[in-house]
Amino acid sequence: MSYEIKQKVLDQRTQRAKKRVRVDFFKSWSAEMAYVMGYFCADGCMFSNSGGSKYISFVSIDHELLENVKIMLQSTQDIKVKKQSRPNCKPTFLLQIGSKEIYNDISKLGLLPNKELRLKPPSVPSQYFRHFLRGYFDGDGCISSGYYKRRNRKSKVLIVSVRFASGTKSFLESLKKTLYYLIKLKGGSVSKSGGCYYLGYSINDSRRLFEFMYNKIDSCFYLKRKYNSFLKVFNN
Q: Which range of residues forms the domain containing residue 186?
């Protein structure tokens, strides 16, 4: 290893120790970075305080998901439990990281504070898009299924739906176009319900989405609860 490379590695280690996080994580695309970026687009936020410090944070009801993000970011920050305003709610977990460098790198990818109503998909290289999509699905996606009994027939039809949610309609329309381009999903529709937009796919496209998002991935790259929901549907 050359002196320059050694010095770069040492500098990165120093930065990580100082910042308690991998500050170079969002500087270049990788499978891990794409996954975390997808999840950040779904359930992340970025903000500055009055002193000029900059933060990013991730929120989830799944502690496992934040543990995976924490490992990939090499963060030493604790995952905290958010206070609930209503009783009998599921506990919500928070991972908050202070880093101007990370904040600025995410800004360069096109994300902004209060992104919920103006979210724009970053320009994800095609080879990493499935990881980005899976990260977004783990944050704001779901799969549901049920049986529909056809009129005047004894047989039942399996109904499967995969949906992605967003406060920004154009974001979901962009996802739909990219999925058509990459894996030729010809179905899918964007609808609005309760102040939120949804991109939904039926059974055949749902199966292709499952194969696209989960084929040959490392165990820390997905939320097991949602992966098992896919398995339960298609194994039956």
A: 3-235
CB-based contact 155:58 (threshold 8 Å)? no
Q: For 99-139, give the secondary structure using H, E and C.
A: CHHHHHHHHHCCCCCCHHHCCCCCCCCHHHHHHHHHHHHHH
pLDDT digits (tens, 9 = 90+) for 115-151: 655 688 889 999 999 999 999 999 999 999 887 776 6
pLDDT tens digits, 62-84? 999 999 999 999 999 999 998 77
Query: Which CATH number characterizes residue 88's domain?
Result: 3.10.28.10
Q: Answer whether 136's CB lies under 8 Å from 42's CB.
A: yes
The pTM assigned to this predicted structure is: 0.86
Count of domains for the chain? 1
Long-range contacts of 153-159 (CB under 8 A, 24+ apart): 158/203, 159/202, 159/203
Amino acid at 55: Y
Angle between helices 203-214 and 169-183 (to 10 degrees): 80
